[in-house]
Amino acid sequence: MADVERMYVNGEWILAQGGATFDVVNPADRSVVARVTNGAVPEVERAVTAAHAAFREWSLLAPKDRGRVLLKIQELMEERRDELARLVTLENGKPFDEAKKEVQFSLGYFGWFAEEARRMPSSGAPGSSQAVTTSTVSRTRRDSSTRLPWSSTSPTTWRSPRRRSLGRLPRSSRSTRRRR
User: Fold this and answer.
1) Which tens digits make up the pLDDT trace of 14-50?
2) Which of 120, 160, 173, 179 could be cross-linked to 169 through a Cys-Cys bond (beta carbons 3.0 to 4.6 Å apart)?
3) What one-character DSSP code corresponds to residue 167?
4) Which of 41, 59, 37 is nearest to 49 (CA)?
């Protein structure tokens, strides 16, 4: 087992205040896979502040450049697919083939959102009649943080693009109708 794994916040690998840690246990044989730093409120606040600052710079990028970043992440995940699947297997006890499918599923979202980035500025659709046009303007309202259990799957599976299109608009979107 390696030393304590740190959190990556604002370009730095940090430990939690007070040195709090927890063990990641392999459910198959109960061995300790890793010891990781256990972030709490101060670390979450630091991460959200950093994310807010980074968002300003990110939002100045052209959508096609944002898409390129997402495609690069997808490429790196693809190169390390087996390594990522091995980690999923160790921390969840999931069979390796299933873990590979999960990683493949997750990295597919980066490609999907990279392509969607190209369509960000104009997202209009015909209305119910020729006299009506429906358009959606998406804006980020605020930064947030989510704490995921180790056994969770990709957070994108909770609200997949297909489910989002079938359900209500996300809070960050505002739908408007205007007459031609």
Assistant:
1) 999 988 999 999 998 999 999 999 999 999 999 999 9
2) 173
3) S
4) 41
Q: State the pTM of this model.
A: 0.62
- Say how far apart CA 111 and CA 71 lie, in whole Å: 6
Q: Are 43 and 16 in contact, with CB atoms under 8 Å apart?
A: yes
* Residue 1 DSSP SS3: coil
Name which of 29, 33, 22 is nearest 149 in CA terms: 22
Q: What are the φ and ψ backbone dihedral angles of 138, each rounded to 5 degrees?
A: -100, 130
> How, if at all, do strands 21-25 and 132-138 pair?
unpaired
Per-residue pLDDT tens for 87-118?
999 988 899 999 999 999 999 899 999 988 77
C-alpha atoms less than 13 angstroms from C-alpha of 103 in its C-beta half-sphere:
24
